[in-house]
Amino acid sequence: MAEAPWLTPRPDGVELAVYARPGAKRSAVAGVHGGALAVRLAARPVDDAANRELVRLLAANLGVPRTAITLRTGARARAKRIHVRGVTPDEAIRRLAPLLSIDKEGGGD
Questions:
Q1: pLDDT of 6-48, one tens digit each?
Q2: In the chain, where are the structural domains located?
């Protein structure tokens, strides 16, 4: 398995460390920020819209149903922990790697 500090294996899937940036022009996985998966969201953090958009984006990119994704911590913060059921660590890395822009120092965005 490739090294990804933002990913923790779990018995039934993976847990992702996510750094969310709401209010972007479009939603996208933007790279790595401080050891977390950086995600831009085209939704404002109002009435849980940004969290719903985050779940939608991750589900689409990981190839899992939205119901397989649970926001474990950080509902009202930029730093979040997301549990994704039904995907292995290798699958998650393979599906997200093309979306990441990681520089040589291991930073990114």
A1: 999 999 999 999 999 999 999 999 999 999 999 999 999 999 9
A2: 8-99
Give the contacts of 7 (CB within 8 A, at least 6 positions apart): 14, 15, 16, 17, 37, 89, 92, 93
Residue 100's pLDDT is 82
Q: Write out the DSSP string of the chain.
A: ----TTEEEETTEEEEEEEEEES-SS-EEEEEETTEEEEEESS-SSTTHHHHHHHHHHHHHHT--GGGEEEEE-TTSSEEEEEEES--HHHHHHHHGGG----TTS---
Please tell us whether the domain made up of 8-99 is placed in CATH 3.40.50.80.
Answer: no
Nearest Cα neighbor of 59 from 37, 78, 82, 77 is 82
For residue 72, the one-letter residue type is R
